[in-house]
Design a protein that fits this description.
By secondary structure, the protein is an alpha/beta fold. The chain folds into two domains: 69 residues, no CATH class; 149 residues, NAD(P)-binding Rossmann-like Domain (Rossmann fold, 3-Layer(aba) Sandwich). It contains nine helices and nine strands. The strands form two sheets. A five-stranded parallel beta sheet has the order 7-6-5-8-9, with helices on both faces. Strands 2-1-4-3 form a four-stranded antiparallel beta sheet. Helix 3 crosses helix 9. This is XdhC family protein. Pfam families: XdhC_C.
Length: 235
Amino acid sequence: MERSTLQAINAARAARRAAVVVTDLSDGTSQVFPEGAKFPPEWDSVIVQALRSGRAGITAVEERSLFINVHLPPPRIVAIGAVHISQALAGLAAVAGFDMVIIDPRTAFATTERFGNVELLAEWPEDILSSRPLDRYTALAALTHDPKIDDYPIRAALEAGCFYVGALGSRKTHATRVERLTQAGVPAEAIGRIKAPIGLDIGAASPAEIAVAVLAEIIEALRRRDPAARAGGAR
């Protein structure tokens, strides 16, 4: 691998951005395309598919044999709320290959006794996210039912372009949430990205079942996301 190629990959990794390396197998030359960069239009479908799947492979484009290798940041889940759903979701997330962090300023809930080795931050989301910002490879699950805790990270997730933003609550609760976000200046298009009620509609009832529904919805969003999408919203 050429030094310049490795440097470009490392730069993308440090910034938690994806990078696609396209190698022409006829002569061995490679080009690196960070996610969001322009690339030949005839390569559009293969690069987009690589960014969605995270899988490398050989493909033929206009009689050229290309090896497409993709480097994706590790996907992560940020759960707002040290609740029963978060407990179940933490175990499932690890099995599915997601890093996870739980943020909840309520110290009565955010205890190591309840969450074991999961990264648990007993602080306000606005304090944590200022130094550990969200990004396009983060899924945000707001689970406290408390707008004083949930609203800020939801707005931050929309602005950062997180691939998934979900919020616990009934349709009535979400309607009230939409009013608050609208008054805060969040565009309607951004608000429309929020998955609420959170999780796929599988008839989930228990916290563990809701966690399964949430993780399934997160995986669906990750694999079907639009790599060309841009961040948007307002804080």
